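Sharing a chain and its predicted structure for anyone who wants a worked example. Both blocks are below, sequence first, tokens second.
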Amino acid sequence: MTTARTLEYPHEPPRRRKRRTKLIMTAIIIVVTLLIGFIAADRVVDFTTESKIASSLEPYGDADVNVEGFPVLTQMASGKLNTVHVTADQAQYENVDFTDVDAKLFDVPTDTSRPIGTVEASAVIPLATIDALATEHASLPSGMSFTTIDGGLYLKGSLLGQDLLISIDPKAESRRVVVSATTIRLGSAEVDIDSIPSFLTSSISDIVIDLDFLPAGLELTDIKATDAGLAISLHGTGVSLG
């Protein structure tokens, strides 16, 4: 009669097991330390980069800058930032005032002499600025200025001792604003502009306000009247701020 022998597998010695566990823990600690160091360094570079961009924008106004995406270190190494978000309550460019500025800049080169890949932006042009632009770049009827009423844009003035309001329809055309009269209100009487002979309305039809002062490559895509002025949307590729 043959008795089967039970196979016994050797157990790992406790000392060797402890040594392996210690090596694994050491490796984990090293990796975590390196990762924390990399993240910390990236955040420092992120903060420094945002501060530099904000400083470069100081001539235009006090801006908040956020470099989006992680890690920033690799973006800097590539010579291009993926996305930069810039906001400002007030800004001035080429002596023209803007409010509520919100811009996203894509493919921003670290070499500031090169153009920005793409820009999507919005801002408000205050009424006083519109008047100044119209005076400089267009021919407004004497004594008239822009105003907004219930979300509509108007030219206001006076005629024969009565208040004159001319309803205006603004349109965005590339790098200019074209405003056309739609109705005329004198006192309580309102008349559609189409019912008036054109030689009487030529000075308030198709008033063009040039915006050639905008950065090269940037164009208007939309415009609408608000209580604060004209809210504009802009888009551009290969935009140069200098």
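Comments welcome. The radius of gyration is 32 Å.
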